[in-house]
Amino acid sequence: MDNETKLKIEEKIIEILKTVYDPEIPVNVYDLGLIYKIDLQDNGELILDMTLTAPNCPAADFIMEDIRQKVESVEGVVSAQVNLVFEPEWDKDMMTEEAKLELGFL
């Protein structure tokens, strides 16, 4: 897979990540800053590192499975491995300006 193709697929992955929401927060996981790494391999395998706003999030399994299913639906992605990580620890500074505005932090 060439770099241009990889970039287009990664853009589609980001678009689809913006459709995944934590049921308790009205902002998508990408704009919340919960996605730490999007690593698309040349063979179409995707490794995605993400975190949660809180380690004991009751919706963690639901959110991770929603992400896995949606990113695997992107053309060019053969399989997706979603890793839950807690380092670095998430804080509100990781959110986009739009997310901060939506949640009243600006």
Automatic annotation (TrEMBL):
SUPFAM superfamilies: Fe-S cluster assembly (FSCA) domain-like. Residues 10-82 form the MIP18 family-like domain. InterPro entries: Fe-S_Maturation_MIP18, FSCA_dom_sf, MIP18-like. It comes from the Bacteria. PANTHER family: FE-S PROTEIN MATURATION AUXILIARY FACTOR YITW (PTHR42831:SF1). This is Iron-sulfur cluster assembly protein. It comes from Phocaeicola acetigenes.
